[in-house]
Every structure is written in C-alpha cells, then in structure tokens.
Design brief:
heterodimer, A: about 120 residues, B: mainly beta, 4-stranded antiparallel β-sheet
Chain lengths: ~120, ~110
C-alpha cells in the first residue's frame, strides 16, 4: 500500500532554533517524488520543497532542507532558524510515478508552533 | 498567489442540497486535482483530470462528480449533501505529467447545516 506517515501531530520549537518534522513513506514504485507543503492558519497550501527518488543530493530551499534517507523510506523536513511565521500545519506528500497515475498522497500533517 | 482560482471561497447550504465548486488552474497547467480536507480525515484525494480526461479516482463518493472542460477549468459537483460533507475542498493544478509540484487554490469552505 502507498502511504505517508507523519507521527508528530504537534511540535514546539523556540524561535531561531532548528526543527525536524518526521515523514516516512511506503511505496513499491521505484520512482517517486516527495514533497512538503505548509498550511498556515489562513488555509492555503504552500509548496516548500521537492525531492525525487533518484536525486543523489538532499533538496534544499532557503531555510528548508529535506533529509532523504531512501533505505529507511524517510523524508524529514528540517527548518533552520525558525521564525514565528513558520507556525503552521506541515504536510508531507508523495507522488509515485506509476504509469498513468498522477496521484499525490498526503500525510495527516504536523502542527508546528514557534515560540518567541 | 498560486495562480489557481477557486470559487466560491465559502459556501453554506443545507442537507440534501447540491452545490458546484469551480476551479481555474494556472495558465498552461493541464492537470487538475480535487482534494477534501476535513478535521478527522486529513487531505483526501478525490479525483484527477488531465487535459479533459479523468486519470485517477480516489475516495470520491458516488454523490460527487467532477469534470474538466475544454478550457481546462474544472467543476466538482456535490449532491444530496450530508453534514459529514462539510470540509475544505481544494483544487490543485500542475503542468501534468511529471513529478512536479502541485499549485493549490485557496480552497472552498463548505458548511452543510
């Protein structure tokens, strides 16, 4: 079965510190993409970062990096130097590259609260 | 602004009614996805259209239907509404064929009373 698991329903982090949000996935597809999205209280879904299963290096986008461990099937999001504006819901998602299917599967999310 | 437009932003209706949610994808995007987000179910994939054709179906109820028109906008029709259909409905678009990211609209908050 194809599944995304986010085991941390909620996390707290002190402003300016780094935080890691966990994500594990399950797929039998050899090729897939992994994504992280941020959902602030306003409700919109904002793309943060993407990692392809064949990418050799971990993806980085500004203060966001994706710690990709393929053998462990994990794709943790690391946010460095947390800011108050980082407080939001964070979703990990996967898109298996099964031929003809373009289904994105989302985890249940982790609510991050950044403390001043 | 993601470039994906969803209307209406809020919808309040009664049980048993029918509503239509509309989505205009980003210019050039051929794929449209519909997701339902409720408090207890997270983000649930409903359906995917690519260039007018249905490509994948998720946990979409038979009371729900969707289509993508020649101009690539999409509509999600929800009928015989129940209290449990209250949720935030997202439309997302992508270019279409690769592992590219989804661009989400701001969602339609549906409240069934």
């Amino acid at each position: 079965a194809q599944k995304i698991t986010q085991t941390q329903p909620g996390m707290f982090v002190q402003e300016k510190e780094a935080v890691t949000l966990d994500c594990t996935y399950d797929t039998s597809d050899p090729s897939y993409g992994l994504f992280w999205y941020k959902q602030p209280s306003s409700g919109e879904m904002i793309f943060l970062i993407y990692q392809g299963s064949y990418d050799q290096q971990n993806a980085t986008e500004g203060r966001y990096s994706l710690n990709f461990q393929k053998a462990r099937k994990s794709a943790n999001l690391v946010i460095s130097a947390s800011q108050l504006g980082d407080s939001a819901m964070y979703f990990c998602a996967m898109r298996p590259h099964t031929s003809g299917t373009y289904k994105y599967i989302f985890g249940t999310g982790t609510r991050l609260k950044v403390l001043a | 602004d993601s470039g994906v437009t969803q209307t209406p932003k809020h919808l309040i209706t009664a049980t048993g009614q029918r509503v239509t949610l509309r989505c205009s994808p980003r210019s050039g995007d051929l794929s449209v996805y519909w997701y339902q987000q409720s408090l207890d179910q997270g983000l649930q994939f409903l359906i995917h259209y690519y260039n007018g054709e249905e490509r994948a179906k998720g946990n979409i109820l038979e009371r729900f239907s969707a289509q993508q028109f020649p101009d690539l906008h999409s509509e999600l029709n929800l009928s015989s509404l129940e209290l449990g259909d209250s949720a935030l409905y997202f439309c997302a678009s992508s270019v279409g064929t690769g592992g590219e990211k989804l661009f989400f609209g701001s969602g339609t908050q549906l409240s069934v009373l």
